[in-house]
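Hey team,

Filing this mostly as a record. A colleague (T.K.) asked me to run one chain through the structure pipeline before their review meeting, and I want the input and output archived in the tracker in case anyone asks later how it was produced. No errors, nothing strange. Just documentation.

Input sequence:
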Amino acid sequence: MTTRRQLAGLIAAAAIPLARPALAQSARIPDGPIRLVVPFPPGGPNDLVARVLGQKLGAILERNVVVENRSGAGGVIGTDNVVKSAPDGRSLCLTSAGAIAISPVLGAPMPFDVAKDVAPITLVALMPELLAVPPSLPVNSVAELVDYAKKNPGKVNYGSSGIGSMPHLAGEAFRAAAGIDITHVPYRGAAPAVTDLIAGQVQMMFADMPAMMSQVQGNALRPIALASGERSPLLPQTPTMAEAGVPVVADNWYGLVTSSKVPAPIQALLQEAAARALRDPDLVKAYAEQGARPVGGTQAEFRDFIVAESARWGEVGRRANIRMD
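Output structure:
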């Protein structure tokens, strides 16, 4: 099983440029453009990561890679579209934790079986969850936030992009680890939640870094901590949750998948191409500007990672009695 320590090694390896011999010729993807489905609306973190990856994959595979947005059900609809497409290697999905590791274990209606129908290609990137508060809240650190919540039980609301989303589970993990009484307020996406956070309608929120960075830079929100294993160069003075005394790790992540019916040699070809793309210096730089870290790795490592994440977030969901059915 791929541990977080092994994952750190994969991230470090992804930053090392390697020589690029020709791709293996034991498999061939049929002629025509390759679809890279993003199961979320345009403009979000997942979409930005996919478009950079698509450009690099197209150059490596010598194909036109077309990014296609098919949003709905927390990423499940777009992922399902690819899983049920023609198994020729020309349909890929940049899915997320919610669609293949969280929704299935929280009882959401699933049109596919992750273990049987989804072929993991590679883990593409980790996206840290940033904990922020509005300037109107009189706290400047995790310790002060915990103290405030304990003095005001049940009066601190935290927003999220929806029930069962990574921001929701990060909030529940924080609640349990800190021993505080806070109330979840789900929204239909990150944007309206951030708007209410700025206005003080909710008092705290975890979100993918790009969803709040412009507001943080404009001093409309105060960054408190990163629910990640390390600090971000974009916010070097912001500690991790562990450094702040509440060890919550809740990186969101994006992974490349296709239908399990795609022949194994073609899956291997796609994995090799994606691994090369994720070592490209321009891609590494573009991801860093969004706060993301490229990963890469083998199909087996990604499969083990999905299993581990499913178990971890399933436990958080069970303890918090979160159901998506």
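Quick notes for T.K.: Residues 299-320 form the longest helix (22 residues). Confidence is low (pLDDT under 50) at residues 8-21.
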